[in-house]
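Subject: design request, 156 residues
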């Protein structure tokens, strides 16, 4: 019985010394084994951090964050026409800034380019919004995006 205890102890001890045993960082989807109460390194698939508010350099985009807040408010109030109008009018300058001002600083991931004219920017906006509406799964999302598109295009 002592032999089993020794084997068990030495096996456990060698596991402690080699915590990377069986881990290959070059294997796609490889996860590093964790011990204890689960406070280990999470794989990318296990992380729940949204990545859609980041520029290609990895920095948070304030414009995208504000846009996401606005679209969330539109979705929450989609059946209240007065609230929708209020939200759009309150945010009109923000919504039109990059379309009206050809000198506006564009995000690195913008669908607009600095050399576009005002008219080209509106056409690109319309094209991208139509694609997003077509790609939206939920009818309420299609409606919210459509309301947003129609408001912006009415200001051209």
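Subject: RE: design request

Done. Sequence follows.
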């Amino acid at each position: 019985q002592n032999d089993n205890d020794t084997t068990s102890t030495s096996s456990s001890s060698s596991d402690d010394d080699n915590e990377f045993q069986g881990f290959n960082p070059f294997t796609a989807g490889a996860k590093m084994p964790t011990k204890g109460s689960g406070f280990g390194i999470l794989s990318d698939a296990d992380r729940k951090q949204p990545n859609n508010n980041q520029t290609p350099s990895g920095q948070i985009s304030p414009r995208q964050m504000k846009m996401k807040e606005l679209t969330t408010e539109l979705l929450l109030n989609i059946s209240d026409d007065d609230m929708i109008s209020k939200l759009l009018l309150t945010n009109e300058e923000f919504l039109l800034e990059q379309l009206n001002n050809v000198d506006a600083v564009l995000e690195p991931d913008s669908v607009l380019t600095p050399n576009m004219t005002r008219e080209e920017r509106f056409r690109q906006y319309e094209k991208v919004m139509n694609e997003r509406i077509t790609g939206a799964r939920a009818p309420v999302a299609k409606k919210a995006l459509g309301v947003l598109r129609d408001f912006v295009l009415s200001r051209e």
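The CA atoms of residues 67 and 82 lie 20 Å apart.
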